Amino acid sequence: MKTQPRLALMPSDTDRAREAAEALRGLADFVPLDRADVLIVLGGDGHMLHCLHHMLDHGRVIPAYGLNYGTVGFMMNKPKSSRSLQERIARARPLVVTPLEMIATTGSGTEETFSAINEVSLLRETRQTAKLEVSVNGKIRLPELFCDGILVATPAGSTAYNLSANGPILPMGSNMLALTPISPFRPRRWRGAIIPDHYEMQFRVLEPEKRPVAAVADQKELRDILAVRIRVAREQQLELLFDPGRTLEERIFAEQFHF
After folding, report:
1. pLDDT number for residue 235
2. HSE on the CB side for 240, CA within 13 Å?
3. How many Cα atoms are found within 13 Å in the side-chain-facing hemisphere of 259?
4. What is the reported pLDDT for 191?
5. DSSP string, 92-147
6. Three-state secondary structure of 234-255
7. Catalytic residue among 13, 29, 34, 45
8. Quick one: which of 166, 175, 177, 222 has its CA closest to 201?
9. Hey, is 32 helix, strand or coil?
10. What is the pLDDT of residue 96?
11. What is the block-wise mean pLDDT of the chain (259 residues), using blocks of 10 residues?
12. In a 3-state reduction of DSSP, which class is residue 35?
């Protein structure tokens, strides 16, 4: 007989998620994350990102199965089903998501490293536009970009902030990253680029004292930035579980036909 996976439970702090967690605790036995085989996430996409980062930060990465008690729920499954939770997990389809690694150099000369599942954004801190030098694989592609900011998005994050900034939707498995400017002033007509995900991108802040810039990796912000390097961290793969026919891959593809 096949052994059922041990489950951990991480609800968000909303009333709906807490109520759902109490109901599930009456139907299944849950264990701490460090003893679990699958993490059950109750909440929205933001809470799923929080849970995935929690696993990355603590070095304990297991498949995550989300139930949507938030708003959009791109990374989540429908909360209600005629099947039990264990049945749903047994039938679920895995999807591998590979995060970005951001290495940022601050004004004090220190380096900070963060992971991003959706996107890394460089954003102006004051009323002054940011002035950035943009390089790909060590070659300068834009000597000067005046803008409110710029972001690098993964396929999983291409329908989030990237889409709001008029960036392209990237299908899962495309092996591409979106490089999208935010309110570019000069060159005014530059709309961004689609970059192979085995390339590394580098950004240098020009005139940092006059035009300070912050770097944001998903939900973590670092201010007073001088330079940023971004690459795909293939050694930190994450696994999301989806009900059949409801995968993130299908939702992102369908978003290209949504009006």
Report:
1. 93
2. 27
3. 0
4. 93
5. PEEEEE--EEEEEEETTS-EEEEEESSEEEEEESSSSPEEEEEEETTEEEEEEEEE
6. HHHCEEEEECCCCCHHHHHHHH
7. 45
8. 177
9. coil
10. 93
11. 86 95 91 96 95 93 96 89 91 95 95 96 96 98 97 95 94 94 93 97 97 95 97 95 85 77
12. helix
What pTM value is reported for the model?
Answer: 0.91
Reply yes or no on whether 45 is catalytic.
yes
pLDDT at 251: 78
Give the whole-angstrom CA distance, residue 206 versus residue 208: 6
Q: Where does residue 83 rank: exposed (0-12), middle (13-18), buried (19+ CB within 10 A)?
A: exposed
Contact (CB, 8 A) for 226 and 211? no
Distance CA 49, CA 72 (A): 13
Q: Which domains does the chain have, with CATH numbers?
A: 7-98+237-255 (3.40.50.10330), 100-235 (2.60.200.30)
| β-pair partners for 65 | 40, 241
Cα-Cα-Cα-Cα dihedral sign, residues 193, 168, 100, 233: negative
φ and ψ of 71, to 5 deg: -105, -75
| Sequence letter at residue 110 | T
* Phi, psi for 19 (deg, rounded to 5): -65, -40
Query: d(Cα 137, Cα 202) in Å, to the nearest integer?
Result: 8
